[in-house]
Structure formats: C-alpha cells, structure tokens
Specification:
By secondary structure, the protein is α+β, with helices and mostly antiparallel strands. The protein has 2 domains: 1-40; 42-88. 39% of the residues lie in helices and 15% in strands. The relative contact order is 0.10. The structure holds zinc ion.
Length: 109
C-alpha cells in the first residue's frame, strides 16, 4: 500500500482536508490558510519532473545543473542515466575515437 502525503499548494501546510469533489477529482481545503484546490497526485508530479529531467539529459546538461533546475536529487538523476543506458554528460565525454562509440553500443559504427 502506498500512502501519499498531500500538501497545500499555496502554503505547503499538511493540515488539509477533503472538501468534496468535482469532475471526478477530489478537492481539498487547507485548514491553515483556507485555500481550496484539487489534489495533485505525487505520481503525476514526479512523472512531469522526470520527463523534464530526461529532456535536459538529452540536451547534455550537467547533472548538477539539472538537479538545480528541476529539484530532483543528483543521485536520482544519475540512477536514471544508468538505468536508461544513455550516456550521461558526466559519465561519458564526447566520443572522439571510433572505438569509444562501439564500446558504448551506439547504433552508428
Ligand atoms: Zn494552505
């Protein structure tokens, strides 16, 4: 069972309660500031963040700059680089030798 903690989008307080639903989505009301809004599931937010990370990795940004821009931890980005098998900016310099590209499994020969 996975529990997700929701926070107020305005004041980031944990003191929120369910306040009905609209359009199939649950609404919440913050007890601290009175703000009302929709729950943003953590999975959706994470997927959006990771898509941005993948895009920045394609543009060959450094891990630190991606971490700074997206708020995703550097180790998480490094893990995604490893998992995807992509050549990260810090892990592999620009391939200059023919042998280096073959070792990385590039489709180009
Ligand atoms: Zn609030």
């Amino acid at each position: 069972m996975v529990y997700t903690q929701h926070y107020c989008a305005k004041c980031a307080s944990e003191q929120i309660r369910r306040n009905g639903q609209s359009g199939g989505r649950a609404k919440y009301q913050c007890k601290a500031c009175g703000h009302q809004g929709y729950f943003q599931p953590a999975a959706v937010e994470k997927a959006r963040q990771y898509a941005q990370v993948d895009q920045l990795l394609l543009e060959r940004n450094s891990l630190r700059s991606i971490a700074r821009a997206t708020g995703v931890a550097r180790n998480t980005i490094a893990r995604r680089v490893k998992k995807s098998g992509a050549t990260g900016p810090a892990l592999a310099p620009a391939p200059t030798k023919k042998g280096a590209t073959q070792a990385l499994g590039s489709p180009r020969t």
